[in-house]
Design brief:
By secondary structure, the chain is an all-beta fold. It is built from no helices and 4 strands. It has one domain. The mean pLDDT is about 95.
């Protein structure tokens, strides 16, 4: 996972799945500096954008 500016790595995907309702889903370790509901690039600095959602305990 890359920052929205594409200038640094901010996380790594650990698991992926496909949901009939939601489409593609992934679990990832993300740096604390990334805000929940914030965007990240997937796969490369210029990759598609995805939204970060925090898991509730």
């Amino acid at each position: 996972l890359w920052s929205p500016a594409g200038d640094k790595v901010v996380g790594a995907i650990t698991s992926v799945a496909r949901s009939p309702r939601e489409g593609g889903l992934a679990l990832a370790y993300v740096r604390r500096e990334v805000e929940p509901s914030g965007p990240v690039h997937v796969g490369a600095a210029d990759g598609p954008l995805a939204e970060v959602e925090a898991l509730e305990p």
